[in-house]
């Protein structure tokens, strides 16, 4: 869809959103595409079908971009200012990047390059700092919605696959017919990240034959590890490709220096990957490796929605 001269940042955002949801690029959103992209762990399938029907104003069974824009523009509210600001920031960053030398041979003034590096790092830190309050607000809204709906987490009934010391359990379980069968937790909603940390700690204790000694004592000298959570929703027709890539990634991660645990939870097409790393520095190094980058590239074609990433520090003693 070509943008008109009087298009707004909201129009650009909604056009990009439509493109991301429209997986087969046919210019229409099917119910399957809509449900795969907009399911958020709170809305039920029936509620998503009702929302799809509300947006599909001509009732032809698909959503056109004009229909999506009508309802989303009506509900965007104060978020409109945020997307307008992001559009300006994107333009500013693009202009900044164009001023950077393409190669090291293009560097003329070392002092000038020092300031470019300094301001670029400061800008990067400032942009990253914007994410934390947004993540907290989004998590708070999700937790509140789940509480209202009276969803309960049952840690002992969730099935965990994989451990860095046993790569054979990283692959999905298979039945007699050879097709992958993913164990389904009794509750799809995993609750807050803090609750998942407690659950993973209990599982790790059982795996290593330890007994959880209860709450940790506050000690500034206690080393901390980093727990990382990746939420992935796999396209129905890309499960084999995804799981092959996941198996290769887990095999590499299982032997990576500094990786204390790697566990996978399967729930139909929804896959949650947990990793525990010795420190943030080790995790940052891992994310620069070809192993990590290759796995992320493969996810572009196999995930229904962009991967969701969360991390937090935990006592290192939980995983030793």
Provide a descriptive summary of the structure in words:
This protein is of the alpha+beta class and 320 residues long. 48% of the residues lie in helices and 11% in strands. The chain is built from 10 helices and 4 strands. A 4-stranded antiparallel sheet has the order 2-3-1-4, sandwiched between helices. Strand 2 (259-267) and strand 3 (270-277) form a beta hairpin. The chain is globular, with a radius of gyration of 22 Å. Residues 1-5, 150-192 and 205-220 have low confidence and may be disordered.
Largest sheet, spatial ordering of strands: 2-3-1-4
- What is the share of helical residues? 40-55%
Give the overall shape.
globular
Query: Helical region count?
Result: 10
Describe the structure concisely.
With 320 residues, the chain is α+β, with helices and mostly antiparallel strands.
Topology:
Elements: H1 9-21, H2 31-38, H3 45-55, H4 65-75, H5 79-98, H6 110-148, H7 193-208, E1 224-233, H8 239-254, E2 259-267, E3 270-277, H9 280-286, H10 290-302, E4 308-315
Antiparallel strand pairs: 1-3, 1-4, 2-3
Helix pairs in contact: 1-4, 2-3, 8-10
Provide the descriptors you would attach to this structure in a database record:
single chain, 320 residues, alpha+beta, four-stranded antiparallel sheet
